[in-house]
Amino acid sequence: MAARKATQNIKARATRGAGRLRGRGRVRATVHVALGERSYDVELGDDWLETIGRRAADKLGAERVAIVTVPSVARRYAPLLTKGLAARGAKVDRIVVPDGDATKNLKQLGLLYDRFLEHGMDRSSGVVTLGGGVAGDLGGFAAASFLRGIPFVQVPTTVLAMVDASIGGKTGVNLAQGKNLVGAFHQPKGVFLDMATLRSLPRRERAAGAAELIKHAAIWDASLFDWLEPRIEAFLDLDPKVVLPALERSCAIKGEVVERDEREGGLRKLLNFGHTLGHAIEKHARYRGILHGEAVAIGMVFAAQRSEELGFAPAGTRARLQAVLERAGLPTRVPNRPRSAYLSAIAVDKKKQGGKIHFVVLEGIGKSSTVALTPREILPAGWRA
Ligand SMILES: NC(=O)c1ccc[n+]([C@@H]2O[C@H](COP(=O)([O-])OP(=O)(O)OC[C@H]3O[C@@H](n4cnc5c(N)ncnc54)[C@H](O)[C@@H]3O)[C@@H](O)[C@H]2O)c1
Ligand SMILES: [Zn+2]
Q: In 10 A of CB 244, how many CB atoms?
């Protein structure tokens, strides 16, 4: 429901925001994620980190709090957040882990537990993750597992983490054998977005996150797609009239999908649109030189093309999706490698999914479903990158 309601409010919000000065210290929009006793709010604001600190402390109700963050984010944003937490009496330990996806590993996890214990944390303590999906996944999993689980709050600072990684309770780390192979579902007590933090985020990272936002629109919400299509540049330029409603609606979609399928039984698989080939591309690039959202952009164009060829989507679907991704500066062409290379990479996904690949197809812009296909059906004979 949340997504639909947000859809109706979109125009009103955009106009209301227009005449405003930058909002300091207060919530500008809230998305509720209804999961029974695990329910929480995603609260969006602008330039309100200190307030976030206070609100996070209230949600956690903890005397001792660890902030898990990465260097560039820590320097810029941890002081105000810490000030807010401390204002509520929390004793704060700031734990800065190295930047990059490789940090999501068991060694860093072990180091986090050590720091938690040194800080005197117990079952009544809490964690705040501050950063992109790496800080969120690692810090979230530390919270999920320390003393069998302590509460945590997410403060995502990348577009990707805001619209995707911070919502839904998936936490975890990578193993040498593959990404995200160890983890747990652990819903946060709250998610707080400060749009002002996006100003320091490189444009390329903004675009990569926008790929997931475009994905949400493409699989779920045609009216969001219609609205975003002419505004994608304004989004990347961080025009507040566009950023607030776009983030709000994208969070609402992710929240709604998670509400209806918390543990990825079915519906949540739709969020994998573009990820079958996307993961294969990332794997072949050894996760270097290409960002996750960029690989997903290429994967979405491919999947939209296949959706047309398989008779699920009307002609023109792929072209429309490709155009908006290209205007966001995202790559859309599959890197030139033999079909066999992609087939074997996709086969790994097949193993993870128990024999079949749940390939996500579009039925047009704003509507999607999954079909069980073999790697050879996904990449038919004669297919070329
Ligand atoms: N849990 C989930 O449901 C879920 C979903 C999608 C992705 N993920 C995970 O998320 C991770 C990717 O997340 P990401 O794209 O946010 O990557 P990231 O956390 O590595 O952040 C990207 C880069 O931006 C920097 N950064 C972050 N915020 C900044 C800011 N405000 N200003 C300047 N620099 C900033 C970081 O230091 C990093 O260099 C992957 O590990 C992926 O597996 C998890
Ligand atoms: Zn993704």
A: 22
Concerning whether 264 is annotated as a catalytic residue, the answer is: yes
What is the rounded distance in angstroms from the CA atom of residue 153 to the CA atom of residue 366? 31
- Enumerate the β-bridge partners of residue 94: 67
Going by CA atoms, what residue is nearest to atom 10 of ligand 1?
133
Closest ligand 1 atom number to CA of residue 167: 3
Q: Would residue 292 show up in a list of annotated catalytic residues for this protein? A: yes
Q: Is 47 exposed, middle or buried (0-12, 13-18, 19+ CB in 10 A)?
A: middle
List the domains of the chain with CATH numbers: 2-202+214-260 (3.40.50.1970), 273-378 (1.20.1090.10)
Compute the distance from residue 18 Cα to the ligand 2 centre, in Å: 31
Q: In the predicted model, is pLDDT for residue 54 greater than 80?
A: yes
CA of 83 to the centre of ligand 2 (A): 33
Query: What residue has token string 């629109």?
Result: 217
Residue 84 has what pLDDT?
A: 95
Give yes or no: 279 in active site. yes
Reported as a single tens digit per residue, the pLDDT across 335-369 is 999 999 999 999 877 666 667 899 999 999 999 99
Out of 264, 284, 350, 367, the active site residue is 264
The pTM score is 0.93
User: Three-class SS string for 52-78?
Assistant: HHHHHHHHHCCCEEEEEECHHHHHHHH
Q: Which residues contact 247 (CB under 8 A, 6 or more apart)?
A: 44, 159, 162, 163, 193, 195, 213
**Range 61-73 average pLDDT:** 98
Ligand nearest to the CA of 161: 1
Rg (CA), the chain: 20
Measure the N-to-C terminal CA separation of the chain; round to a whole number of Å: 39
pLDDT at 355: 72
Ligand 1 centre and the CA of 290: distance in Å? Answer: 13
